[in-house]
Amino acid sequence: MIAQILLASVGALALPSNITPSKVGDKLPAVVLEGLAQTEATSYEEFTGRLVLLEFFAHW
Fold first, then answer.
1. What are 1-60's pLDDT values in tens digits?
2. How far apart are CA 54 and CA 7, in angstroms?
């Protein structure tokens, strides 16, 4: 049973072959940012030329 759990977790961590890492100078793919407090979505293009700080936070 432990072996099955380990094999399942390794399979879940595998990346699809069509995903490639970004490089310096690559363009950001088109994304729409949806905030919890905002009523409408925001595009990253609205932040062109501005400093953006992304904070990833998790409380365990």
1. 666 666 666 655 565 667 778 888 888 777 777 766 656 777 777 888 889 888 888 887
2. 33
3-state DSSP assignment of residue 55: coil
Strands 32-33 and 42-43: antiparallel
Give 43's strand partners: 32
CB-CB contact of 41 with 33 (8 Å) = yes
3-state secondary structure 24-50: CCCCCCCCEECCCCCCCCEEHHHHCCC
d(CA 5, CA 19): 25
Token readout for 10 is: 């390794």
pLDDT value, residue 39: 65
